[in-house]
Amino acid sequence: MNAKTAICAAVFGIFALLPTLAAGSGSATPKDADKHQSAFNDSRIKFLESSFKRLLEKSGSVSGALCLAENGNILAAKSFPAGREGAAQTFALGKSTAAIVTLAAVAMQNEGKLNLRESAESLCSYFRLSGSARRASLEDIWSGKFGFSEHSDTLVPSDASAAEVFDIAAQIPPTANVGINSSKLAPAIAGYALGYIADKSQKNFKKSFAKALHAYALSPLGMEGAKYRSFDSPFFPATALALTADDAAKWLACETAQNPKIATEQLVSERRIPKSGEKKFSMGWIKTSIGKTNFYMCGDYFQNCANIVAVMADERIAAAFFVKSTDSKSAPQICSKALSLLIEMLQNPIPPSK
Question: For the chain, how big is the Rg over CA atoms in Å?
């Protein structure tokens, strides 16, 4: 399998096809953080942008975006076609929303508002799972240690309230080790629980979730153009966000920063790391590698928009690619091709200047 196919497989659930899964839990923070040497120069960034633009044009996609950050600095936040840049397009994250929701969660933990490894039921009285999942933590839910099959989503009426979603989830036998791209029900109740923990006086769980996400992630990172999607869906927290290229780049800067704005670097980094060597998932992220490049990734195709987000923690580099297209097969493939090109760059460092 080539790198492009492997990346696409990782995001869309075909984990058995991955060429390599990084073993072990990894380090909480990148090595030699204070001696960082950039992997990019202007010509490399322009080449990546032009290559991505050609992929979009060749496929006939409606539009797209490329975002790149390194060591806490934004290197690129480009949307295409160029004529639409001023319109501040937004790109739906779908299930990749979880990776930002968990940023808000670690920010709350940093302020002592919650402990992500504590029983979710003890933090939110509405949160009730059965059987072995009864003591599941929010970390367990977002990491796919406990959850539901995709079929479970069909048991939730489209007009169900958040409170009813909690009740329905309590009646469905949970499944162990489901991964993070199966059901929207699990990240939905985790998100509603987060909103409840942030503001127990607010009885509208959708509003409390949105308020918590804004207060602990979007606002501190200056993500002013973020929009909420699927607010009318009972699974709102699972697919809530759409971002501009600028906002996505600010998110990536946080993922690669030595001093993130919202929490300690250790909390931000540790949420991506699987807690055992056999697990692939953690807090909205999938851990994998292509060649010698290890990275954490998330992605989805939602509301006619594909996305892939990758964090190369050791290199302090993060990238995001978005493609708007009605073609659910080619759009993710374009994201995969762009990411594989980026990884190829990283595996061929810039020669030292003479």
Answer: 19
Contacts of 289 (CB under 8 A, 6+ apart): 20, 21, 22, 295
Separation of alpha carbons 315 and 310, rounded Å: 12
The answer to whether 339 touches 7, Cβ cutoff 8 Å, is: yes
Residues 6 or more apart whose Cβ sits within 8 Å of residue 82: none
Phi and psi at 75, nearest 5°, equal -100, -30
Strands 63-70 and 73-80: antiparallel
Amino acid sitting at position 113 = K
Amino acid at 130: S
- Of 44, 141, 1, nearest to 347 by C-alpha is 44
Q: Topology of domain 97-223, per CATH? A: Beta-lactamase (3.40.710)
pTM of the model: 0.89
For the chain, how far is it from start to end, CA to CA, in angstroms? 38
Nearest CA-CA partner of 3 in 22, 16, 15, 20: 20
Assign residue 74 a region (left: φ > 0; alpha: ψ between -120 and 50; beta: otherwise).
beta
pLDDT in tens, the chain (354 residues): 555 555 555 555 433 333 333 333 344 445 555 556 788 889 999 999 999 999 999 988 889 999 999 999 999 999 998 545 445 799 999 999 999 999 999 999 999 999 999 999 999 999 999 887 888 999 999 998 888 888 899 999 999 999 999 999 999 988 877 777 679 999 999 999 999 999 999 889 999 999 999 999 999 999 999 999 999 999 999 999 999 999 999 999 999 999 999 999 999 999 999 976 557 889 999 999 988 899 999 999 999 999 999 999 999 999 999 999 999 999 999 999 999 999 999 988 776 554
Distance CA 102, CA 122 (A): 19
Domain ranges of the chain: 1-89+244-354, 97-223
Amino acid at 171: Q
